[in-house]
Amino acid sequence: MTSARTRTTTRLRPRTLLIGLLVLVTVMLLALLIGAGDLGWRRVLAEIVAQLSGGTSPLSAREAAIVWEIRLPRVVLAGLVGAALASSGAAFQGVFRNPLADPYLLGAAAGAGMAATMVVVLAPAVSGWVVGPLQLAAFAGALGGVGLSWVLGRSSGGTGTATLLLAGVAVASFLTAVQTFVQQLNTETIRQVYTWTLGGLNISSWHEVWLALPYIAASAVVLCLCARLLDVLTLGDAEASSLGVRPGRVRLLLLVAASLATAAAVSVSGLIGFVGIVVPHLVRMLAGASYRVIIPMSLIGGAAFLVVADHVARTIMPGELPLGVVTAFAGAPFFVLVLRTAQVRSL
């Protein structure tokens, strides 16, 4: 009985994958059909069918542009950002063997926030770049924060994940202090920085999709390929080494891939919390504890989760609600539940 159960929980079953994909396609379609602009879901559905079959569209050129140039890129970008944050959160939980780890653990959020604040303060009117200075700064800042944590952790003489974790806490605190100091010197920029910090996809286009897609796709491939090695690491470094796995190199590869995906997500969406904690835990409860299941299903589940959250953010009230607020409303109660029921232990 034990071996049979192990087989069912350590491999991604086709039925589980199919159900996840169907859920994702369904929520993406619903988000495309229903929006703040009252186009009528039947007319939008007829437009989609017309585009696929070459038929006559029931929408005007302006209405069709709303569907294909505003709604669709936003839905796709929400899926990409959700997939990046959820899979990165799962990888961080596996690397640190801590169920409360998230993609921002090593200073990605603090680095992105500080860099974005610097751009808002020092170059508020810069335009005409292929990549916006705010996006570029957030991407570089996120990677810089993680890189600084890694260097600090290694230079302190420690080799374990606990040392790296402490370095991440120190770096995040320092970068947040710098950001706060700069904001206090330029109080007129607080509102703009605050809006970015809450996260959102209200300025989404195909340009942002193509900017984030290569990094998130490459990271997703690496994380999926390393999922089996992540399972081996849960046995302990000694056991993993005896099986021919080099724990240090595997952790470094996973952290680089997860941090790259997180940086790409943050650069186009701002800081969106709880996705990297909620989704991997839900996948673990519903589909199994193996990272060969958790990583790919977190990609799908994270995409579906954020598409739904973004749809709520843009339709629940006349003025758009920050996306980070919606994910906090959904994630905070779940996070409290995790704190009450889960001990921080090896997964």
UniProtKB/TrEMBL annotation:
An individual GO BP term? siderophore-iron import into cell
Q: Name one GO molecular function term.
A: transmembrane transporter activity
The reply on keyword Cell membrane is yes
Which InterPro entries does its entry note? ABC_BtuC-like, ABC_transptr_permease_BtuC
Where would you find the membrane-spanning parts of this chain?
Answer: 70-92, 104-126, 132-152, 164-182, 209-231, 252-277, 289-309, 321-342
UniProt keywords, alphabetically: Cell membrane, Membrane, Transmembrane, Transmembrane helix, Transport
Which Gene3D superfamilies does the record cross-reference, listed alphabetically?
ABC transporter involved in vitamin B12 uptake, BtuC
Where does this polypeptide localize?
Cell membrane
Q: What membrane topology does this protein have?
A: Multi-pass membrane protein
Pfam assignment, any one: FecCD
Cellular component GO terms held in the UniProt record: plasma membrane
Q: Does the keyword Nucleotide-binding apply?
A: no
Q: Where does the protein principally reside?
A: membrane
Recorded hits in PANTHER family, A to Z, give:
ABC TRANSPORTER PERMEASE PROTEIN MJ0876-RELATED, FERRIC ENTEROBACTIN TRANSPORT SYSTEM PERMEASE PROTEIN
Assigned protein family? Belongs to the binding-protein-dependent transport system permease family. FecCD subfamily.
Know the name of this protein?
A: Iron complex transport system permease protein
